[in-house]
Amino acid sequence: MKTLLSRRLFTTALAAAGLASFSLNAGAQQAAASSSGWPNKPVRIVVPYGPGSSPDVAARIVAERLSPRLGQPVVVENRPGAGGNNGTGAVAKSPGDGYTYVISTNGPLVYNTVLYKNLPYNPFTELKPVVLAGGQANVCTVRSDSGINDLRGLVGAMKQNPGKFNFSSTGVGSLSHLGIELLKVKTDTYAVHIPYASSPLAVLAILQGDVQFACVPAVAVLPQVKAGKLRTLAVSTAKRSALTPDIPTMKEAGLPEIENLAWMAIMAPASTPDDIVRRMNQEINAVLAMPETKEKMHAQYMEPIGGSPQDLARFMQQELRTMTPVIKRTGIKME
Predict the structure, then answer these.
(1) What is the pLDDT of residues 91-124, one digit of tens each?
(2) Residue 235 C-alpha from the chain's centroid
(3) Omega of the bond prior to 304 within 30 degrees of 0, cis?
């Protein structure tokens, strides 16, 4: 099946993670299952964002197909708040019994370790990588009646109207927040950040006129674009999306140093046994490789990724090295 997002869109992420083709061994899966006696009750995946957010959608797509493979219900639980820190931190403090996981994102898993002065959990020591589930481009958007037609127009409007622009995001420290903070630094502009619990709420804020723009996942933006209510300005990734070839990259829009990918990873409490993590990794990789999973994720403008726990650990460290100077450059520090 032809992917709906360009393969090259994810070149940097996949290379950083060292993701090679991932083969499944049915015998190894059975051995892991029998050695641990797991699972014998429902498995829970916490989403640290609201319903309809990209991690929520991805979690439900995966859970539906993971459940029969595990032989137990896989329950998705929304626990939004504090830009994803609440739900992510709750799982970090949970018992490592193999029955609790979180599907979290760039901010709570990497960026917030730099952004927050006192983050109440450490994702690198209190969580154990399971799998890099997927990624997508953020889409910068304004209301269709705003009079702004492209990214240069947005920058110009902010410069001409200082103090009159707000932007929404999926939370403090999220890519949708930091990407715009970097935009402000690069263009010497000012706008007030207003965080929301999910991408649908961030988009609703634009529609209601509470904010003037946002750069949030395509799944929340494009339905409103098709309805004629929003106008797209740019995608956040280095290459155009094959699904939305008419939307330019930020580089093409004249901002060459702003490139980023919104990604989602499944993590377990750090004390979760390695054999259970390996089994979960194998089963989720199998789910991500299913044609029906790809079709459903592509329909939501997401690209399944996959790989080993070690791949994810390396990817997170690479993200930390890449984004730490970016975050420090913005001067943002949260309590």
Answers:
(1) 999 999 999 999 999 999 999 999 998 999 999 9
(2) 14
(3) no
| pLDDT tens digits along 179-212 | 898 899 889 999 999 999 888 999 999 999 999 9
Q: Provide DSSP, 165-233.
A: -EEEESSTTSHHHHHHHHHHHHHT---EEEE-SSHHHHHHHHHTTS-SEEEEEHHHHHHHHHTTSEEEE
- Cα-Cα-Cα-Cα torsion 222, 223, 227, 231, nearest 10 degrees, comes to -20
Q: Which two tokens stand for residue 133?
A: 């589930």
What are 125's two structure tokens?
């020591």
Parallel, antiparallel, or unpaired for β 303-304 and 262-269? Answer: unpaired
Q: What angle do CA 127, 120, 77 make, to 5 degrees?
A: 60
What tokens does 16 get? Answer: 């950083």
Tell the burial category of 36 from Cβ atoms under 10 Å away from its Cβ (0-12, 13-18, 19+).
Answer: middle
DSSP tag of 256:
T
- Asked if 129 and 140 touch (Cβ cutoff 8 Å), the reply is no
Between helix 274-289 and helix 54-70 the angle, nearest 10°, is 110
The tokens for 31 are: 């051995």
To the question of pTM greater than 0.70 for the whole model, the response is yes
**Are 29 and 71 contacting, i.e. CB atoms less than 8 angstroms apart?**
no
Q: Residues 6 or more apart from 278 whose CB is under 8 A from it?
A: 28, 32, 309
User: What is the set of domains in the chain, with CATH numbers?
Assistant: 7-136+262-330 (3.40.190.150), 138-235 (3.40.190.10)
Angle between the N-to-C axes of helices 218-226 and 199-207, in degrees from 0 to 180, rounded to the nearest 10 = 40
Q: Which two tokens stand for residue 85?
A: 């820190």
**What is the amino acid identity at position 204?**
L
Six-digit token string for 273: 């046994």
